[in-house]
From TrEMBL, chain A:
The keyword Oxidoreductase applies. InterPro entries: FAD-bd_oxidored_4_C, FAD-bd_PCMH, FAD-bd_PCMH-like_sf, FAD-bd_PCMH_sub2, FAD-linked_Oxase-like_C, FAD-linked_OxidoTrans_Type4, Oxid_FAD_bind_N, Vanillyl_alc_oxidase_C-sub2. PROSITE patterns: FAD_PCMH. Gene3D superfamilies: 3.30.465.10, 3.30.70.2740, Vanillyl-alcohol Oxidase, Chain A, domain 4. Pfam families: FAD-oxidase_C, FAD_binding_4. The keyword Oxidoreductase applies. One of its GO terms (molecular function) is oxidoreductase activity. This is FAD-binding oxidoreductase. Residues 44-223 form the FAD-binding PCMH-type domain. Its cofactor is FAD. Keywords: FAD, Flavoprotein, Oxidoreductase. It comes from Jeotgalibacillus proteolyticus.
From TrEMBL, chain B:
PROSITE patterns: FAD_PCMH. Residues 30-209 form the FAD-binding PCMH-type domain. It comes from Jeotgalibacillus proteolyticus. InterPro entries: FAD-bd_PCMH, FAD-bd_PCMH-like_sf, FAD-bd_PCMH_sub2, FAD-linked_Oxase-like_C, Oxid_FAD_bind_N. It comes from the Bacteria. This is FAD-binding oxidoreductase. Keywords: FAD, Flavoprotein, Oxidoreductase.
Length: 486, 440
């Protein structure tokens, strides 16, 4: 039966529209769908079949059931800030957008937990409880617009996860719509260690391939009594990296320890939040310590000493909150700032053991020379999470491919020293093949086996996370099973 | 007997004879034993034993230090007891990266002692750390009172090396502290009670040992329980950063510090100036009538060392008449759980020592008494936990009693997913059969 106001012959658009309350909660015209053809990873673009906007769990479940019944591929989407293509519709999916589910359901300060809907924006949570002295710890750079549902899907990190951990360490409970439409609750009442395999931990970071999260119980933290931030300029990157190791070796666990190299500094200084970093320095470190005020001064003194011993050109603590906030705005808008010095850029997300920083940076420099593309480095140096930003111009034929190649080579460099290919951005479609840098076929099969338990028809967000069939173990396994069955 | 002999002969072909032992005890009141014990020292040996057992339909029981023999399971013995006790040692420690990879059979104390020279530690305070192995600790997702500041096993582990029942070696996670490549498979194996694979290596992130620590013990009169709740609320809402905020019931308090009163343990770890500042903060907050005792440095460490040994230990005969219950509840309702534990001994013929974390929601109750009374007390505790929206699982109980009670409580509504995972990884139910939730 046709739904009023909907002008298409596609019966499924009518069918879905009915489930979400009519034409106002669905997009299906090509011109509307274009906005959903990619997320923060803009290299691959494909149109979805439709975008539906359910307003509650029941509507999500109905949409999912509809898709499952009619064999329609589907996927969930939050704010679309993901950097690895996890929300890109590769198979003309029905996109289930969770942006209408953006309520803060409850806050329980005494028990340090809050319940939010998946479309609730990360920073809004901290803003909602800041006046009472609390905050939500995971702080990805996109926190002003990314959603907590998306953070759960990607197991998002941020600058402050060195001390406080990533999203998975702050999730206490989830309500999930499984790929067949069934609703389950993990971590009831936000109580930890529920008996049974840790599906809460498994779901977090599964990039929307195991289920759709519709409600999230998070841990909230008390604001530290004091915070101090130090800025240090180095004339060479090795000194800067050594200072990072020395700070950690001194027994200090900074809340954040960030580094930017020369090219990155050029970018942030040309963009919207310049703070006057000298153009000729090789590296800037941003070091934040928080905790009990009387203990912090001692640590700051130690940090200043360490930097001095490593030939720092200039090092100083922020004079006030305003200066501290400016330094952070400069750093947190670092990716976008590359737009000021390059028409296009590709963000990578490798992780290495901290002690291998100098040699990996050297290798990245080599990759830059080999490909003729500039590479800026912005990274969470404390936990070894590098973000090489490959600068390129998509208008020049061949440069996009070259940039992808350079990005992949950076990840290989990380894997070669015992690191990994993604620390917080996820695999998505971008790093599927690079999964082979860190996992053997058996290990990839072990993971796709788990996906089969949750998502046996693979209708939910197919084609993500794992190497493409044809070259991958899944096919080998299928062949093996076929042979055994003979 | 013949079967066991055949098994023995076959095992001799895959693992050197000196690492195979026949059972020398008549009975195992805690169960989770095996007809034959193997003590592998290489991953190849473990893989070969698993592949053999899986092929032949033999059942394997996995053991580390033996402290958790009374935790889950309804069989006295499997065919093979795979002891990880000799599979131990540090594989890789990069002090500058603050990561450590160790073999699963290494005891917790061995690890911490090794790290002492580097002024580093695994931030975790599991029970029975002298005998408990890291593999067992991770398999049971252990934590202790310091969970408030440290987290649990699932927060410390960044990588695992596992052997699946068919002998395949699988790595999960890695050696870096941040990693979202693929599913977070570590989580699946942490707390899985060895029902999905044998953990051979564990990689954990480390923390510097705090420069200074202290412990404040605040003892309250019986009628002052609400004062404890109010005080804890205020403490947790303040800007000080306790690593522990754990309530002990009067029997446990008596055992540990000689005060038969509800005692709140509050501890701090930081640079010395910060710790002293926080001690003063607590002293100023102290409610009227509460007794305050301060333990610093080594004295605080001694307290926690003794504390670590209070749980029933599957290696000791004494534990054949003991039970341990883990309760998960909303943080501040821990006060009600601990109060209930105090009243257990008036309703049932049991003694009950208990502690619970007001900032992390996990309580432990240790019971001693006659079989029937133990079961009644456990059932009562479970009802209390469930009425508060929480759960109770039995972490230690003699085998005969485990058969009469659901150790893990009711199956969750999503049990089919747990079962699906088990079937994918261990379709023949070779590993630790029926040791986990719903008979997995």
């Amino acid at each position: 039966m046709a739904v009023k106001g909907i002008k298409t012959k596609d019966k499924h658009i009518h069918g879905l529209a009915k489930l979400v309350g009519g034409q106002r909660a669905i997009l299906y015209h090509k011109e509307d769908l274009v906005a959903y053809d990619c997320d923060g990873f803009t290299i691959h673009k494909h149109l979805p079949r439709a975008v539906v906007f359910p307003k509650n769990t029941e509507e999500v479940a109905k949409c999912v059931k509809y898709c499952a019944t009619h064999n329609l591929p589907f996927l969930a989407r939050g704010a679309g800030t993901g950097l690895s293509g996890g929300a890109v519709p590769l198979h003309n999916e029905v996109i289930i957008s969770l942006v209408r589910m953006k309520n803060l359901i409850s806050v329980d300060l005494e028990n340090r937990r809050a319940v939010v809907e998946p479309g609730f924006v990360n920073l809004k949570l901290t803003n909602s409880i800041a006046d009472r002295g609390y905050y939500y710890a995971p702080d990805p750079s996109s926190q002003y617009c990314c959603t907590i549902g998306g953070n759960v899907a990607e197991n998002a990190g941020g600058a402050h996860c060195l001390k406080y951990g990533v999203t998975t360490n702050h999730i206490l409970g989830l309500e999930v719509v499984l790929p067949d439409g069934e609703i389950i609750e993990l971590g009831q009442n936000g109580i930890p260690d529920a008996p049974g395999y840790d599906l809460l931990g498994l779901m977090t970071g599964s990039e929307g391939t195991l289920g759709i999260v519709t409600k999230i119980t998070v841990r909230i933290l008390k604001n530290p009594e004091a915070k101090k931030t130090v800025l240090a300029y180095f004339d060479n990157v090795t000194d800067g990296s050594q200072a990072v190791s020395d700070i950690i070796s001194a027994g200090i666990v900074p809340a954040a320890l960030e580094m930017m190299d020369k090219t990155a500094i050029e970018g942030v200084e040309a963009a919207a939040f310049p703070v006057g970093h000298p153009k000729d320095i090789a590296a800037v470190l941003l070091i934040e310590v928080d905790g009990i005020a009387v203990g912090i001064d001692e640590q700051i003194t130690q940090i200043l000493d360490v930097c001095t011993a490593r030939n720092v050109r200039e090092v100083r603590a922020a004079k006030n909150e305003e200066e501290r906030a400016r330094w952070w705005a400069n750093r947190k808008t670092g990716f976008g700032a590359m737009g000021a010095i390059s028409p296009d850029y590709l963000v990578q997300d490798g992780v290495i053991p901290r002690s291998r920083l100098p040699e990996v940076l050297e290798r990245i420099e080599q990759i830059s020379e080999e490909t003729g593309l500039r590479i800026a480095n912005i990274f969470h140096a404390g936990d070894g999470n590098l973000h090489p930003l490959v600068l390129f111009d998509a208008r020049i034929p061949g440069q996009t491919e070259k940039a992808i190649e350079a990005g992949s080579a950076c990840l290989q460099a990380c894997a070669d020293v015992g690191g990994t290919i993604t620390g917080e951005h996820g695999v998505g479609i971008e790093k599927r093949e690079e999964m082979r840098f860190v996992f053997k076929d058996e290990e990839i099969i072990a993971q796709t086996n788990i996906r089969e338990v949750f998502n046996p028809g693979n209708l939910l967000n197919a084609g993500k996370l794992f190497p493409t069939p044809g070259r991958c173990g899944e096919v080998k396994k299928e062949m093996k099973e076929a042979l055994l069955a003979q | 007997m013949l079967l066991a002999e055949n098994l023995l002969e076959e095992l001799k072909t895959i693992i050197p004879q000196e690492r195979i032992k026949e059972k020398d005890r008549k009975s195992d009141p805690l169960g989770n034993s095996g007809k034959i014990t193997v003590l592998p020292v290489t991953e190849e040996e473990i893989s070969a034993v698993l592949a053999y057992a899986n092929e032949q339909g033999k059942k394997i029981v996995i053991e580390g230090g033996g402290t958790k023999r009374g935790f889950g399971g309804v069989e006295e013995e499997g065919d093979i007891l795979l002891s990880m006790a000799e599979f131990k040692g540090v594989v890789e420690h990069t002090a500058g990266d603050m990561t450590l990879t160790v073999k699963a059979g290494t005891t917790f104390n061995e690890l911490q002692d090794f790290l002492l020279d580097y002024e580093q530690q695994i931030s975790l305070d599991p029970p029975l750390r002298e005998q408990a192995t890291i593999g067992g600790i991770v398999s049971a997702n252990e934590s202790g009172p310091k969970r408030l500041g440290y987290g649990s096993s699932r927060d410390a582990v960044i990588g695992l090396r596992m052997i699946y029942p068919d002998g395949t070696i699988i790595r999960a996670g890695g050696k870096v502290v941040k990693n979202v490549a693929g599913y977070d498979m570590n989580k699946l194996f942490i707390g899985a009670m060895g029902t999905l694979g044998v953990i051979t290596e564990v990689t954990v992130k480390l923390r510097p040992i705090a420069k200074y620590e202290s412990l404040i013990l605040l003892s309250f009169e019986e009628q002052d329980l609400e004062k404890i709740r109010a005080f804890s609320k205020e403490l947790l809402d303040s800007s000080i950063e306790p690593v522990v905020c754990e309530l002990l019931n009067p029997s446990l308090s008596k055992k540990l510090i000689g005060e038969e009163q509800y005692t709140l343990a509050v501890s701090f770890e930081d640079v010395e100036s910060s710790v002293h500042y926080q001690e003063e903060f607590v002293k100023k907050m102290k409610p009227d009538g509460a007794k305050l005792k301060l333990l610093s440095g080594m004295d605080a460490q001694d307290f926690w060392r003794i504390f670590s040994a209070i749980a029933p230990n599957g290696n000791e005969e004494e534990s054949f008449e003991e039970a341990a219950v883990k309760i998960g509840a909303v943080n501040l309702t821990i006060v009600d759980i601990i109060k209930e534990s105090r009243q257990l001994s008036s309703s049932f013929s049991v003694s009950a020592e208990a502690h619970g974390g007001l900032g992390h929601g996990i309580s432990s109750v240790y019971l001693k008494g006659e079989s029937k009374e133990l079961l009644k007390a456990i059932t009562h505790l479970r009802k209390t936990a469930e009425s508060l929206g929480g759960y109770a699982i039995v972490k230690h109980l003699p085998l005969a009693l485990r058969k009469e009670i659901e150790v893990w409580g009711k199956k969750p509504a999503y049990f089919f997913l747990l079962e699906g995972i088990k079937k994918k990884i261990d379709p023949k139910r070779t590993l630790n059969p029926k040791r986990y939730v719903g008979g997995l």
